[in-house]
Amino acid sequence: MDNVVDVDEEGNQRMLSENSTPYQTQECVLYGSIFVKNVPDLERRLAGLCDPGCEEFYEHEMSFSLRTSSTSEVKTDIKLRRRFRTEHQIQNYWQLKYIGVPEPDQKCPTIVRKEISSLVHSQDMMTYAKSLGLRMDYEYITQGKLWTKGNIKILHSTLTRTLRAGTYDSSSLKSMSDSALVEISISLPESAEYMPAAKTVRDFADQLMPLVNMEKIDYWKKMFSTPAAPARR
């Protein structure tokens, strides 16, 4: 009996090894939005462009920041994400994602940034986050679908927020907008040249027009901008 091998476990380990990506990766990403009433039209377009099938998700996401200096101009973004399931043991698994500052490449057609993802198991995630020195900026609930086109990921999701912190039943959730968020991204090894992948993402995104206009949003400029001083009278 000591020599018996769990075939399923061995197969799962082999699959994780084959599908694993380098610890630190680059991410090319574009963002867009579409009215919720037009999401069915977008899904029909994606069904024709993407690989067969899609995966639905319903997740709780929290965004944290870590100040890396005495000033507020430098900030590290950490996102925690868990999938809402009925099984209690699944609830304790969280995706921990570090998002770096985008590359200042004006010629690149997409946002390019460092991204590190890992899986964390904790029954008290907030205590763990606080022990890392993280401070939560905001949280929200996402519900939508994930599509793939080769190694390109396409997500569209609606965002809701809770009216009472720590309470996530349907009566406590409120929609943040009448639009759905659309995200197209591709992950690369850290040392890989990102321009070919960025052009591939841009070309795919252009096929979704005029339903949705995917943009390279300069969100980091707002993140690091400081309020202007009031004019003297």
Written overview of the protein:
This protein has a single domain, classed as Hypothetical Protein Pfu-838710-001 (Beta Barrel), CATH 2.40.320.10. 23% of the residues lie in helices and 39% in strands. The protein is α+β, with helices and mostly antiparallel strands and 233 residues long. Strand 6 and strand 7 form a beta hairpin. The protein has an 8-stranded antiparallel beta barrel. The longest helix has 13 residues. The protein has 6 helices and 9 strands; from the N terminus they run αβαββαββαββββαα.
Average pLDDT value?
A: 80
Number of domains: 1
Following the backbone from N to C, one meets helices and strands in this order, namely HEHEEHEEHEEEEHH
The CATH C-level class name: Mainly Beta
Q: For the record, give the distance between the C-alpha atoms at the N and C termini, rounded to a whole number.
A: 87 Å
What's the architecture, going by CATH?
Beta Barrel
Radius of gyration: 20 Å
Give the strand order of the largest sheet, numbering strands 1, 2, ... along the chain. Answer: 1-5-4-3-2-6-7-9
Could you tell me the CATH topology label. Hypothetical Protein Pfu-838710-001
Sheet of most strands: 8 strands, antiparallel, barrel
> What's the total count of β strands?
9
- Bin the helical content: 10-25%
Uncertain stretches of 5 or more adjacent residues = 1-21, 223-233
Shape descriptor reads globular
CATH superfamily: Hypothetical Protein Pfu-838710-001
Strand content: 35-45%
What is the count of DSSP helices, taking H or I runs of 4+ residues? 6
Structural class call reads alpha+beta
Subunit structure: Component of the Mediator complex.
GO biological process, one term: regulation of transcription by RNA polymerase II
Keywords: Activator, Nucleus, Transcription, Transcription regulation
Subcellular location: Nucleus
